[in-house]
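FORM 7B: Structural annotation worksheet

SECTION A. Query
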Amino acid sequence: MSKIVPNICKSKKVFQCDTCGKVFKWKSDLNRHLKVHTGEKPYLCKTCGMRYGYKSSLETHVRLHTGEKLYSCESCEKSFTTSTNLKIHETTHMGKKSFSCKTCGRSFSQRNNLRDHERTHTGEKPFSCKTCGRSFSLRKTLKVHERTHTGEKPFSCKICGESFTRGCQLKVHMRSHKDEELYPCTTCGERFVIKSLLTKHLMTHT
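SECTION B. Predicted structure
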């Protein structure tokens, strides 16, 4: 039910499902996917006899019997057996600001956001850079700082390909493309300044 086809982008072989055409990088991923079409369910729950096509699905099901709850809500710290149930629960907190700062009275919908805010009053900086020793009050601020050492630039311009350390730098850069003549992708609408970038992008659709 499978065949090996050339990967245009990486010049490597990939594995394609003959039934639906979906492509996979690894043969093990293709074999896992084929169960969708064959209906094969080799994983058995020894407690109730239910069968599953994937080992991960069985592991999630078994938690219903054991009572194990791996997923915790950051707002109220309730726990759930599946990530889906956690996401459903989290919608109950949307718009509600149950956690208030005792210093200034400002309210937050999540407990961890309140903790981050409270450090603006205490001056606490628990997150330290292992390279230079500089400390920060927020973990996300530390991560941005660490890029000055690693050279990592995760924010890329989809038009010209230039990369940036911070998202705000990319926003400023995007203004420079406002009046430029762009090459649009007729499939998804993305636009590129250089035609070669558009050609490379088109491979992602083929």
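SECTION C. Observations
The chain has a mean pLDDT of 79. The longest strand covers residues 2-6.

SECTION D. Sign-off
Analyst initials: ____
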